[in-house]
Design goal:
- Strands 5-6-7-3-8-9 form a 6-stranded mixed beta sheet, with helices on both faces. Strands 11-12-10-13 form a 4-stranded antiparallel beta sheet, covered by helices on one side. Strands 2-1-4 form a 3-stranded antiparallel beta sheet, covered by helices on one side.
- About 35% of the residues lie in helices and about 30% in strands.
- Helix 3 crosses helix 4 and helix 5 (about 135-145) runs parallel beside helix 6.
- The protein folds into 2 domains: about 5-220, P-loop containing nucleotide triphosphate hydrolases (Rossmann fold, 3-Layer(aba) Sandwich); about 225-295, Alpha-Beta Plaits (2-Layer Sandwich).
- A hairpin with a 3-residue loop joins strand 1 (about 5-15) and strand 2 (about 20-30).
- The mean pLDDT is about 90.
- The chain has 11 helices and 13 strands.
- The chain has helices at about 45-50, 70-75, 95-105, 110-115, 135-145, 165-180, 190-195, 215-220, 230-240, 265-275, 290-300, and strands at about 5-15, 20-30, 35, 60-65, 80, 150-155, 180-185, 200-205, 205-215, 225, 245-250, 255-260, 280-285.
- It is α/β, with parallel strands linked by helices.
- It is elongated.
- The structure holds adenosine-5'-diphosphate and magnesium ion (MG).
- Adenosine-5'-diphosphate (ADP) binds next to strand 2 and helix 1.
- Belongs to the ABC transporter superfamily.
- Keywords: ATP-binding, Nucleotide-binding, Transport.
- It comes from Flavobacterium jejuense.
- This is ATP-binding cassette domain-containing protein.
- One of its GO terms (molecular function) is ATP binding.
Length: about 300
């Protein structure tokens, strides 16, 4: 697998007191869609700013493309939108992109190609100021793609958009990814990451709580809901089982039993029956990504 970006023990402390990024390490491989997920203030934009060389790191390291290129040259292969799109309001979409081509020494032929990709070819002669927020964002994406970057970086790409605009941007990100461009996006929206990304880095207060595949985050061992007429005895018996991690007592005398290894409902039922326990209630559940995210971000 080709490595696009390696981040190692990255730290950022603002003004000697705000520890915005704490020892964050992860790798980005070609062809995947990565989400940095975390509530507001968790260090997402700071992390992106550091690897894009607009925020100074305090310590740690990052390397683009295995460190084979100086950062300045490496960043020419990176397309990024980390601020609100900034184009000339009285110029058309096409004129704005041509200007970007001129500055970055890219052939003008790329303008129509990218306008077509983002679904704005029919509006290429409209002035930027007439665009909706969603169209402005799509134009910004077209602009960031003009030089066919290896990776596209987006910070909260759907913020402020209406549901239709959100849908269009998410579909566009998936389309761009399907054509082989690696994507890294920051979002505080769990469902955005779940819908768009293959991999996720979860941040809270600058600390990395999880990184790995979105599927991996979904496929944890799950938990059981159990009830018997003697929950005290049930609890003691459960805690002797090697696959059981912890137990919580919840509403209506139900026990919530969390696992550290896989355990099927029939195996658990048999085990308990052999210990003389007859259950009144047995359900195996899996957490949604949302519940897991809340669990991850709530723990101390
Ligand atoms: P996110 O993008 O996840 O919302 P940020 O990276 O913007 O989070 O911010 C992380 C923390 O760093 C926050 O506590 C924020 O207030 C602080 N911070 C961000 N930028 C600056 C700055 N330029 N000066 C001081 N503190 C900052
Ligand atoms: Mg941010």
């Amino acid at each position: 697998m080709e490595t696009i970006l390696t981040i190692s023990n990255l730290n950022k402390i603002f003004n000697k007191r705000v520890h915005a990024v704490k020892n964050v390490s992860f790798e980005i491989y070609k062809g995947n869609v990565y989400g940095i997920l975390g509530p507001n203030g968790s260090g997402k934009s700071t992390t992106l700013g550091i690897v894009l060389n607009v925020v100074n790191k305090t310590s740690g390291d990052y390397k683009w493309f295995n460190g084979n290129l100086p950062t300045h040259d490496a960043l020419k292969k990176v397309g990024a939108i980390i601020e609100r799109p900034n184009f000339y309001p009285y110029m058309t979409a096409e004129e704005n992109l041509k200007l970007v081509c001129k500055i970055k020494e890219i052939p003008y032929s790329k303008v129509n190609e990218k306008l077509d990709l983002v679904g704005l070819i029919d509006r290429k002669d409209s002035k930027f100021r007439t665009f909706s927020l969603g169209m402005k964002q799509r134009l910004a994406i077209a602009s960031a793609l003009l030089n066919d970057p290896e990776i596209l970086i987006l910070d909260e790409p759907t913020n402020g958009l209406d549901p239709q605009g959100i849908r269009q941007i998410r579909d566009l990100i998936k389309l761009i990814a399907s054509q082989g461009t690696t994507i890294l996006l920051a979002s505080h929206l769990l469902d955005e990451v779940e819908k768009v990304c293959s991999h996720v880095v979860v941040l809270r207060y600058g600390e990395m709580l999880y990184h790995g595949s979105v599927d991996g985050m979904l496929s944890n061992e799950g938990f059981f809901e159990l009830k018997s007429d003697n929950n005290t005895h049930l609890k003691e018996t459960l805690l002797n089982h090697p696959s059981i991690d912890s137990i919580k007592e919840e509403e209506e005398d139900k026990l919530f039993v969390y696992l550290k290894d896989s355990l099927e409902a029939n195996e658990l039922n048999k085990y308990l029956f052999e210990k003389g326990i007859i259950l009144q209630h047995l359900v195996k559940r899996k957490n949604s990504l949302e519940e897991q995210f809340l669990q991850l971000t709530n723990k101390n």
